[in-house]
């Protein structure tokens, strides 16, 4: 079916072009699937055929022959694609309420987490009273359109990570039949179920940093291994001789094993499933370094972690949530408490207002 070109456009001076484009876009008058027509001193923005120009519009509305218009390429930015897709769904399912549509479109999420072919939207997405009424009134849902706009096969909602000992994900699916993810991150393949296990994209710099260490010849203990956020990069990219992975969650441990097998490094992995207050003592004296990746604090495992190091000493990587103004002091206090020297202090990400997730690299001699 031939797509009709715009019936009219708004001709504005070049100096006013960007301001007017923003106004037209904000009020739903701009037709984004067509390119603007550039003249010597003016730009003609394509208008939707049902556009009613808002107050404050500059320039003049004109008609151009269809041959003057050319189709715009698909947007490379995902948010405009999402905006367009949901607008089209609203107009198809509930035509005629432009003001209501704009209010709903203003609530669209601008960030999301991509896990392979699965996109997880923030828990607040489509959750307002207005969106709940809209979705309840319609037999269809916009999830296919949203997934297509974000180049995803499956779609889900994030949720608050459980405060239980196994840090359950709580994510739920909107589109798709399962939450299993098989994804490649910086040369490392991870496997897990996003509806069951937490995977924090915010820790990406720390995962990459741990994989960048040259660990050849080293034995590592990962005291809170989960699905292998740090274990797998250390094995695959760091080439650690062996990693002892400890975790209380047998389901996460099973996914770590699948990830290790997918990367071909399971022969250098030993898993210890259970409370690490019971498993770490069996590893005393064996490690060149120990990773303590539990938030908000891994302090209950510090003593065992030091004892896991070889008699010649080694490295601890201590994760912690710390108030911004206390980070340097905390690092020095922790070094003194554990009898080590600060090698590096990494600020990973903001965890909450004024609180950062940090990692202290501590050398114990």
Account of the protein in words:
The chain has 365 residues and is of the alpha/beta class. 28% of the residues lie in helices and 25% in strands. It is built from eleven helices and 17 strands. Strands 13-12-11-14-15-17-16 form a seven-stranded mixed sheet, sandwiched between helices. A four-stranded antiparallel sheet has the order 2-3-1-4, with helices on one face. Strand 11, helix 7 and strand 12 form a beta-alpha-beta unit. Helix 2 (78-93) runs antiparallel to helix 3 (98-105). The protein is elongated, with a radius of gyration of 27 Å. The model has no long low-confidence stretch (mean pLDDT 90).
The beta-strand count equals: 17
- The proportion of strand residues reads 25-35%
Return the string of H and E elements: EHEEEHHEEHHEEEEHEHEHEHEHEHEE
Nearest-angstrom radius of gyration?
Answer: 27 Å
The number of helical segments is: 11
Envelope shape: elongated
How far apart lie the N and C ends?
A: 74 Å
Percent helix, as a range, is: 25-40%
Structural class, from helix and strand content? alpha/beta
Strand order, largest beta sheet: 13-12-11-14-15-17-16
Sketch the major β-sheet: 7 strands, mixed
Average pLDDT across residues? 90
């Amino acid at each position: 079916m031939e797509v009709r070109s715009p019936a009219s456009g708004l001709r504005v001076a070049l100096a006013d072009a960007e301001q007017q484009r923003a106004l037209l876009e904000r009020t739903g008058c701009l037709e984004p699937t067509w390119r603007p027509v550039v003249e010597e001193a003016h730009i003609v923005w394509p208008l939707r055929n049902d556009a009613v120009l808002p107050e404050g519009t500059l320039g003049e509305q004109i008609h151009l022959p269809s041959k003057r218009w050319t189709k715009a390429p698909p947007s490379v930015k995902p948010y405009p694609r999402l905006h367009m897709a949901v607008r089209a769904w609203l107009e198809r399912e509930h035509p005629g309420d432009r003001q209501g549509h704009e209010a709903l479109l203003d609530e669209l999420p601008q960030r999301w987490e991509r896990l392979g072919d699965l996109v997880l939207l923030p828990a607040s997405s489509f959750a307002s009273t207005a969106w709940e009424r809209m979705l309840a009134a319609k037999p269809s849902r916009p999830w296919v359109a949203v997934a297509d706009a974000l180049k995803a096969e499956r779609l889900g909602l994030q949720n608050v990570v459980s405060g239980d000992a196994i840090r359950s994900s709580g994510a739920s699916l909107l589109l798709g039949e399962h939450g299993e993810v098989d994804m490649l991150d910086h040369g490392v393949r991870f496997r897990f179920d996003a509806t069951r296990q937490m995977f924090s994209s915010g820790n990406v710099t720390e995962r990459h940093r741990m994989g960048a260490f040259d660990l050849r010849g080293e034995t590592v203990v990962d005291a809170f291994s989960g699905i292998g956020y740090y274990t797998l990069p250390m094995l695959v990219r760091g080439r650690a001789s062996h990693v002892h992975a400890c975790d209380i969650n047998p389901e996460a441990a099973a996914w770590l094993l699948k990830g290790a097998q997918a990367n071909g490094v399971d022969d250098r992995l030993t898993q210890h499933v259970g409370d690490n207050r019971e498993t770490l003592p069996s590893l005393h004296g064996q490690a060149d370094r120990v990773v303590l990746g539990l938030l908000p604090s891994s302090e209950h495992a510090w003593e065992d972690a030091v004892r896991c190091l070889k008699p010649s000493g080694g490295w601890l990587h201590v994760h912690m949530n710390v108030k911004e103004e206390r980070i340097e002091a905390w690092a020095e206090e922790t070094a003194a408490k554990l009898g080590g020297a600060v090698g590096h202090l990494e600020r990973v990400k903001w965890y909450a207002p004024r609180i950062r997730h940090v990692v202290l690299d501590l050398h114990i001699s």
